[in-house]
Amino acid sequence: MKINFILIFFILISSTAPFVYAEESINERLVRVEESIKNLSQQMDLLRQNINRRFDDERVFNYFILGGIFTLLTLIGTLIVIIVWDRRSSLKPVQQ
Description:
Order of helices and strands: H
Radius of gyration: 41 Å
Helix content: over 70%
Distance between the termini: 141 Å
Low-confidence stretches: none
Structural class: mainly alpha
Mean pLDDT: 82
């Protein structure tokens, strides 16, 4: 009877011991997972800020390009108006 009791006691102790150690490692793993999630969140925030900065830079570049295009169109229009005005003024003495 005493041998059975010792055997049962040993089986119970040996079967519960891994769970105690496993519980500690699970807690450690959870802590590591939480830290890695926080780290990923910080990295995503930095990435989002970088992307926003790039979009702002592209907007400034696009505005610069549009400004150049409208400036060229204005200069071409002014040149056409000056050519037409010069034609009229040069033809006026001939018509009189």
